[in-house]
Design goal:
11-stranded mixed β-sheet; two-stranded antiparallel sheet; alpha/beta
């Protein structure tokens, strides 16, 4: 058995489908199926049960795959230490970031990092903050940029910056007629109670943005109108831009368009913390630590305020 075979088994368990696992592993489905058949024959027991929907691990299979994951994680830790000893002349860091947030910041982060460490590969995993927290707990990624609060990582997260939650609408949307302007400033704001006549485009309950926005309505004892309740943040902004409703977004993710109006929620605004989080492993590679430094540099350089 080698590490490649252990990787095959863990991916099969995660995907619960030979076809999806083969696609993820960039190999032919027939080759992966043949591997599984031969491997089960060699060890003399079934690791997976075939079902109408795909495959699922047996009890023995689950235990075996748990050990396989631990071996792979220990192998990755050993490689990280080896790369560190070579003073970042090679290596890999797995970075987690949401697609929405990453679209604006990630290219700059990667460019700056590669300028300093051209031989260290950064593998990017795109997902929402809640899923990224789980991946950090499982040791599947090394570092992540996530919206806070976290629920399980506790002391593994350091604050990167405060991020403002704002509303976005088409400039012709009637909600813009109810906006107020901060005296002496170009910032437009609105009380959430003044939006009650309009429909919202809401992100999913399983996202920080979706949960945060719903808590605002609960806090104000308001009910919101919405035909769309499980929309990604990026799609919600695109729909709002077309005048289909009002969406919530992060200021750090907002981009300027001629037909979009960004609006502060309340005169003082609504904020949450953006953090940099590490995996729960005690050992953090030099590559991950240096990548965090670059992430902080890129975010600290931001002086653009979409609200004014």
């Amino acid at each position: 058995m080698d590490m490649k075979e252990l990787k095959y088994l863990t991916v099969l368990a995660e995907e619960e489908s030979i076809s999806r696992a083969a696609e993820r592993l960039y190999m032919a489905q027939s080759s992966l199926s043949q591997f599984l058949h031969q491997f089960e024959s060699e060890i003399g027991t079934k690791l997976f049960v075939r079902t109408s929907k795909g495959i699922t691990p047996t009890y023995s299979g689950k235990r075996f795959i748990e050990h396989a994951r631990e071996i792979l994680l220990e192998y990755q830790r050993a490689k990280n230490e080896l790369w560190d000893n070579e003073n970042l002349q090679s290596g890999k860091v797995i970075l987690g970031i949401s697609s929405f947030r990453g679209r604006r910041k990630l290219p700059t982060i990667l460019r700056k990092f590669y300028e300093r460490y051209p031989n260290v590969k950064v593998q990017v995993v795109e997902d929402n903050s809640i899923c990224l927290e789980e991946l950090l707990l499982d040791g599947k990624i090394d570092i992540a940029v996530i919206a806070m609060p976290v629920t399980k990582l506790k002391n593994k997260v350091e604050i990167l910056k405060k991020d403002e939650i704002i509303l976005v609408a088409n400039k012709s949307h009637p909600v813009t007629e109810a906006m107020h302007q901060t005296e002496g400033m170009a910032i437009h704001w609105i009380d959430l109670k003044e939006t009650g006549d309009y429909k919202f485009i809401m992100s999913g309950y399983d996202t920080i943005l979706g949960r945060f926005s719903r808590r605002l309505f609960t806090r104000e004892k308001l009910k919101y109108k919405s035909d769309h309740n499980d929309i990604s943040a990026a799609m919600a902004v695109a729909m709002a831009r077309e005048g289909l409703g009002i969406a919530f977004t992060y200021q750090s993710c907002a981009e300027e368009y001629e037909d979009i109006q960004y609006i502060r929620i309340g005169k003082e605004g609504e904020f949450l913390d953006l953090g940099v989080a590490y995996s729960t492993d005690e050992y953090h590679s030099k590559g991950a630590i240096e990548l965090e430094k670059v992430i902080r540099e890129v975010y600290s350089d931001e002086k653009y305020d979409i609200l004014g």
